[in-house]
Amino acid sequence: MMETAPLYTDVARAPDGGVAYWLDTDDGVRIRVGVWNKGTRGTVLLMPGRTEYIEKYGLVTGDLRQRGYATIVVDWRGQGLADRMLDDPDTGHVLKFADYQRDVAAMVQAARELEMPQPFYMLSHSMGGCIALRSLVDGLEVKASVFSAPMWGILIGPVMRPLARGIAWAASTVGMGQKYAPGTSAQSYVSVAPFEDNLLTTDPDMYALLQEQVAAHPRFALGGPSMNWLFEALTETRNLMAMEAPKVPALTFLGTNERIVDTAAVIKRMQDWPDGRLEMVEGAEHEVLMEGPEIRTRLMDQTVDLFGQHS
């Protein structure tokens, strides 16, 4: 029997009936999943982005439940309430990007043990989109996959772009892999950035909710990535972009004001995806699923329409 874990419903705005569990991955890391197991149309494997946590997707789980889907959400290693990977808990760190697939395996196994409704679908955001793409390439079976601003490339200035991976590699090889990537620190973005011209959402209520969540539960907060994370991320995105798209129906949402992931990589990937479609979200920032109600409703309707076509 899985051990229950905390689920902070005070800030999640999630539907009733959710429960969280601790899971142990095959390399001994403790991660957390949140489960909303009511649904008749299948289960969505929800894969968050870097710095994120289960409670951030409370509204999304509610939107999915209203449309007939159960949801399981994961706290990746190194963030949320999962085991942090360094003595400095504010650093977003991973030893190898492939380690995230251990978290995926534990998540999927939990969904099966809990007898969550079939079939399985996938919804992912940002870094979660990179992890999700790798899972699909490696053969994870889902009926369809939806990506929100997937991290298939990291937005780096043209001067630094050719040097970034080499610098990150050098830092890791000389024992500085645990240091923060340039321009980042221990402070979480929403804790210090004002709403005006923020990189995440144009909706003030949603931004206030994100700030409320990390203020109420400081363990949710995560600072910048480590140099090793950066090297691993740049390597993984490069490798994935060189591969053929998986044979899984896919829909990708990307804001027209995206300023975190490399939009050129997303556009190129979707142009090469045989059963894929790219939907540009006018005026939206990085967190397209955290925009205002009108946008969220439209995107969720499109999401479940894709799922329904492949039930």
UniProtKB/TrEMBL annotation:
UniProt xrefs under Pfam families: Hydrolase_4 (PF12146)
Domain Serine aminopeptidase S33 per the UniProt entry, residue ranges: 40-291
Recorded GO MF terms: hydrolase activity
Database matches in InterPro entries: AB_hydrolase_fold, Hydrolase_4, MAG_DAG_Lipase
Keyword vocabulary terms for this entry: Hydrolase
Name by which UniProt lists this protein: Alpha/beta hydrolase
